[in-house]
Amino acid sequence: MGLPAQLPVTLLCLLAGTAHFIQGRRGDIILPEVIKTLNILTERKTPCTKLMIADALANTTEREAVCRAATALRQFYLHHKVSWCFKEHGELGDLRLLRGLDRNLCSMAKLSNCPGKEARQTTLEDFLDRLKTAMQEKYSKRQS
């Protein structure tokens, strides 16, 4: 009562196909989640959104911009002054949203190494607005 020799190969192919399908579906879920998070963050006008962040969205390709944006966000929210601002103004929920946004952007970028040091600076408010516009454009392209 042995298994046919082709069965393990067939199961492996099915498993690989399922993983690819799930990964593709995850990508379909991440972009709307990123846009939702950006909508929440850009609606709130708080003192912490006036803090400066690296302008990672200038002069990049779409894919590189997502990766660089994640890197800039991570460097931003890990800074002591930024954490203090969010704690001081009772905006720890926004800090958690920034961390989640970073994770989702990293998933979308699928790049392991992104340039992280940007000379130009912009406000977090402007950065999030421009990132939201870029993500909405990306979503529109996917829908058409």
Automatic annotation (TrEMBL):
GO molecular function: cytokine activity; growth factor activity; interleukin-4 receptor binding
GO annotation terms (biological process): B cell activation; cell surface receptor signaling pathway via JAK-STAT; immune response; interleukin-4-mediated signaling pathway; macrophage activation; myeloid dendritic cell differentiation; negative regulation of cellular response to transforming growth factor beta stimulus; negative regulation of complement-dependent cytotoxicity
InterPro entries: 4_helix_cytokine-like_core, IL-4, IL-4/IL-13, IL-4/IL-13_CS
Cellular-component GO terms for this entry: extracellular space
Compartments, as annotated in UniProt: Secreted
UniProt record similarity statement: Belongs to the IL-4/IL-13 family.
Described purpose of this protein according to its UniProt entry: Participates in at least several B-cell activation processes as well as of other cell types. It is a costimulator of DNA-synthesis. It induces the expression of class II MHC molecules on resting B-cells. It enhances both secretion and cell surface expression of IgE and IgG1. It also regulates the expression of the low affinity Fc receptor for IgE (CD23) on both lymphocytes and monocytes.
Official protein name in the record: Interleukin-4
Native organism: Oryctolagus cuniculus (Rabbit)
Gene: IL4
